[in-house]
Amino acid sequence: MKVFKFGGASVKDADGIRNVANLLQTVGYQNTCMIVSAMGKTTNALEEVVKRYFNEDDYTLTINEIEKQHIEIAKEVFEDATDVSTEISQFFNDLTSFLRRNKSPNRSYVYDQVVCCGELISTKILSMYLNSIGLTNEWLDVRDYIKTDSTYREGKVDWKSTENNIAKLPTVGFYITQGFLGSDPNYFTTTLGREGSDYSAAIFAYCTNAESMTIWKDVPGVLNADPRYFEDTELLNHISYEEAIELAYYGASVIHPKTLQPLQQKEIPFFVKSFINPLEPGTAVRKGQPLNPQVPCFILKNEQHLIRLSSKDFSFITEDKLSGLFTKLYQYQIKVNLMQNSAISLSLCLEDKYNNLEQFIQDVEEEFKVQVDENVLLYTIRHFDENSDSVINKDKELLRQTVRETLQIVVKN
Fold first, then answer.
1. Could you tell me if 179 and 35 are in contact, meaning their C-beta atoms sit under 8 angstroms apart?
2. Is residue 90 within 8 Å of residue 121, measured between CB atoms?
3. What mean pLDDT do residues 238-261 have?
4. Can you give the residue ranges of the Aspartate/glutamate/uridylate kinase domain (predicted)?
5. How far apart are CA 188 and CA 184, in angstroms?
């Protein structure tokens, strides 16, 4: 069994869907499990539905617009779109019905029940289209297979149940299912975190002992920098699992941080290739591969916050104080991307995914003086050389830290 993963950019419109079909006919699709994301910016649009719902605004207008967009795409790719349009409308009718009946104030729970529609609809459209042109496949509801706990928006995988479920699939066939989603013990939908579709593919690869896993992107493979922010990027032809994990940890956008661990455990080869030029080799991630070419790798994280904490009584930042701070960071679900401490101060570069930073600051102000630089940029340079920091505006530099082969610099936006 092979595992393919296609992101939202690959199925964002009718041309994208037709291109996926052509790609499968070119590279083969037999004995393949295909993981697919929501179309284009659908997840963002569904997040707007959640926002409107909790603000008591008219969310049905947004739902109707998303439905209309999907039906229009279906009409472009199907000669007769009656059946698929009915399927699409049913998904959105169910969504509207859920929101009208829902009594739960848990925003994360509601979020997961709403945003899941994006993946369910995109895979249904793609599966029906491929069947219509002779690429026979079976559509699967991933919630029957990937089981998690009830941590909505960040579901923790129940590996035993998940392995048992996926093991029931025949190893011969062509399957299409959703990324990003799972279900809890009560069969409520859970999500695996943003960009979790890559992780979904790795879960299926692990549980099927796949011969390989391929992520199809709109770039030629893993580059040494994001071309949206850096010029003269280079393709990394092959890298080790360890290097890929390091790049993912620091925020490389091509690979989801949780994706590589299941693959490394079973030494499953992992490829990142272009859905625009599918016959090009892309990047291979395998055991024992060195970084090739040996070039600096640049990672930029936006929307970071630099917090400087200092003792009000000039006492040392000791282990007990650090323990208390990190307990609070965990409580408020704030991620630390860099830390630097001295005797009486601590600097933290933070990622506030759930908008809890203000509460955290209020909580620690009783004990610490707090200085905040909001919306800063964090540059991470792996395998840096003497010229690597030329991309940084040194006049805006706030903090710099070097650990072995990794240089991190925080700058004002």
1. yes
2. no
3. 85
4. 2-273
5. 6
Please choose, from the candidates 267, 297, 269, the residue with its C-alpha nearest in 3D space to the C-alpha of residue 282: 269
Q: Whole-model pTM?
A: 0.86
Residue partners of 228: CB distance under 8 A and separation at least 6:
none
pLDDT tens string 112-157? 999 999 999 999 999 999 999 999 999 999 999 999 999 999 999 9
Contacts of 333 (CB under 8 A, 6+ apart): 353, 354, 356
- On whether the CB atoms of residues 73 and 44 are closer than 8 A, the answer is no
Can you read off the two tokens belonging to residue 300? 């930029």
Residue 195 has pLDDT above 80, yes or no: no
Half-sphere exposure of residue 289, counting CA atoms within 13 Å on the CB side? 22
Query: Of 122, 121, 126, 139, which is closest to residue 20 (Cα–Cα)?
Result: 126
**What is the chain's alpha carbon radius of gyration, rounded to the nearest angstrom?**
23
pLDDT of residue 291: 66
CA distances from 148 to 162, 180, 239, 356 (A): 8, 12, 31, 25
Question: In sequence order, what are the residues at sequence separation of 6 or more whose Cβ sits closer than 8 angstroms to the Cβ of residue 92?
Answer: 63, 64, 66, 67, 117
One-letter identity of residue 87: E
CA count, 13 A, side-chain hemisphere, 32: 19
